[in-house]
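so i finally got all the pieces together for this one. its two components total, 659 residues if u count the protein bits. some of the lines might not be protein, just check the labels. i wanna see the whole assembly predicted at once instead of chain by chain like last time, that was a mess tbh
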Amino acid sequence: MGPLEAHFRAARDGGRKLLVPYVTGGYPGWQEAVRAAAAAGADGIEIGIPFSDPVMDGPVIQQASQAALDAGATPPAILDAAADLEVGIPLAVMTYYNLVHHDGHRRFAGRLVRAGIAGCILPDLPLEESGPWCESADHEGVETIMLAAPTAPDERLPRVVERCRGFVYAVGLLGVTGERTSLAATATELAGRLKAITELPVLVGVGVSDAEQARQACRVADGVVQGASVVRRLMTGGPDAVGEYVAEVRAAIDGR
Amino acid sequence: MRGVRDRSLLAEPSSTGRFGEFGGRFVPETLVPACQELEAAFRAAWADPVFRGELDAVLRDYAGRPSILTECHNLGAELGLRLLLKREDLNHTGSHKINNVLGQALLAKRMGKTRLVAETGAGQHGVAAATAAALMGMECRVYMGAVDVERQALNVFRMRLLGATVEQVESGSRTLKDAVNEAMRDWVATVADTHYCLGSVMGPHPYPWMVRQFHLVVGTEARGQVEALTGGPPDVVVACVGGGSNAMGIFSGFVDGPARLVGAEPSGGAAVGRGVPGVVHGMRSYLMQDEHGQVEEAHSVSAGLDYPGVGPEHAYLASIGRAEYPPVADAEVLDAFQLLARTEGILCAFEPAHGLAWVVREAPNLRGQTVLLCLSGRGDKDVAQAMDLIGPEGGRDILGPDA
């Protein structure tokens, strides 16, 4: 069991709901935003490495990614900066497979380890294509967090879960990242299906848009990943606004 | 030449959707079941004589197939070779794209889908998809980069006349690759009732294979027509390549024979020539990218070829040396476009003018040979842009003083 999974299981088993904010790496102020989120009660942070063609992302994260790329963000620069964060909670990166493929599996996994990154999420690398990357990641000690989708038939979910390390990322709805006015029914349905078949922590992400929706998702799930709602605050209010928001979600899922 | 008479060419891809080391299915988990369902449905339909009969009928009675073969006596004499054009420009909607969309729309109906989404570059595939949707009573939404919307305003209006919704894409480079991203994002959210009608031999498995199968008709017809006219296969088969669907269609008739296969890429979008293997839009193929793996923007006079990747089967044919993919410059394309108009009275699209530009450049090395060019689309859509680029007087000087 890797450090990310150990940390999350221990917290979950202690009765804590898990909160993982997403911050676009390379966006101005992103490191301060990560620190603010950690100080406000995040259990882990997902750092986005921007890609030119982010097919799973909606307008908010696309805009932040493009701004980061325009500001000269590159994968090595983001990972170098991540190595200096020292926030005391596990970090994972979320990026697209071509950046890994282009670098080389072993080399990219090695970069993550040197940067102190525990986990990796590649939303365009489904189970059937994940073998070579997962082998390198396992070898280097990087935990690959797999996505499980509401469209997956029952026979598929156990295979996804088996390949998964760290935690299971339950995709909350049919669609890309972005804020919605309410939590989709698929979010808790899928979380329930996954909880029934795995001991891994199950976190719902994509379309968990505010503190109330996070609280609803956590009735079934072990926690939430929040992306667009965090990144929007980073873009409009800066790192302090991210910290305030994470504290608000923390309070909601703690039942305070 | 390696690969000649190799029956493994033009086979089905592997169970993981690979042509050699290219292809695959790199899509978000949400879309995996949809791709699997599509593969199973296509496999069943393609093996079903009823489906094939329906498709053949609509290609004949609606699209106007078979398309004719035209010999260019004037231009051929000037270039010192025998030039034959496969006239996909004469199909309904003015390009080869209709073959694929009629196939996919029939398949989508058979699968119970009520809505089509499509991406488009030049607008040819968008118009074709809107046409098929109108014919079959389906809803249609077409994603088109903002740059292309401006370049191809008439095609945008055509799609709207046909009842489709055109969504202008403002993300990324605002061209074809971003339109593909946006169409995929739509499909991720609407997969239950929607079919993604992808317009080229690209994307996740089964698209590269399925779209090629729907375009086999181009190569099959051309093979018989060239044989009837000349008594044998051509020496060279030429087509333009963006994603590469018209090229896969016409290559399919000749890939197991001795003909030299040439796919002309725009020099600003030369995925095979300048790219390295990468993964985008669901497939592993040659891809233009920077040192970190960010996808580069393509630049071409032709919106339809403005694409930094290429279909995985082309990547495979290039990797084994069975086909070659030379780059062609915009200026050569404009010259070829005018040359064909003057000598043969045919206004072709900028896309196939890439193929012709290669023939003109290479003519001294092709003397006496029979060259088959896939004339994949007609030029009406490009006339306004050509006027901007050439000037309203026309390029009277390009053929020299006695032209």
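The radius of gyration of chain B is 20 Å.
The first helix of chain B runs from residue 32 to 46.
anyway lmk what u think
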